[in-house]
Design a protein that fits this description.
Elements lengths: L14 H6 L4 H30 L8 H23 L1 H7 L10 H12 L4 H31 L9 H19 L3
Length: 181
């Protein structure tokens, strides 16, 4: 999941924090670590709820609502923990920390795991791999964007336009990890 099926570059999930938090490496890595924690915990809890409650009771159609509630609860716990332990990190992440709740990459990996009918261990490995891949891409993008801030980029390409071009080139590079078909 980290390289071959990267959620950001191959499935285009999690683009809001990808473009929003990737301006500074320290913020990108912190956000990536937060996403790894939420993604892994949400996948574990969602897997348990899906296969031990929703499926046995025949209410698997409630999975979207339940998964969102699980993710929102975990993000709230994480947000309160970061706010109490590291105020500067909390301020640096700003609005992007609560936006993990609506990060489609987190919700996407929970659905990928249950739809693929992964067992418990496969779910954990898949979520960790997806989180590491998300963090890796954020870190790479932030490193490139920090260098681009110092580069002589034409005015019309500064900011988001050059970020989109870089993301496109990163996507092409990551396609190479899956091999040519």
């Amino acid at each position: 999941m980290a390289l071959i099926n990267n959620l950001v570059l191959s499935k285009f999930l999690g683009l809001c924090p990808f473009f929003g938090v990737s301006k500074k490496l320290s913020n990108a890595v912190s956000m990536g670590l937060a996403v790894i924690m939420v993604m892994t915990a949400a996948s574990i809890v969602s897997w348990i709820i899906f296969f031990h409650i929703l499926i046995p009771f025949g209410i698997d159609y409630m999975s979207t609502v339940i998964f969102i509630l699980v993710i929102a609860s975990l993000v709230q716990i994480l947000e309160l923990t970061i706010k109490r332990t590291n105020a500067s990190l909390y301020n640096a992440l700003g609005i992007y920390l609560p936006l993990i709740t609506t990060n489609c990459a987190v919700l996407g990996i929970t659905f990928i795991n249950v739809r693929a009918e992964y067992n418990f261990v496969e779910t954990i490995v898949s979520a960790l791999g997806a989180g590491v891949g998300f963090t890796l891409v954020l870190a790479i993008m932030s490193g490139i964007r920090e260098r681009l801030d110092l580069a002589d980029v034409p005015e019309s390409f500064r900011g988001i336009p050059v970020a989109f071009l870089v993301a496109m080139m990163l996507g092409i590079c990551f396609i190479a990890f899956s091999g040519m078909v």
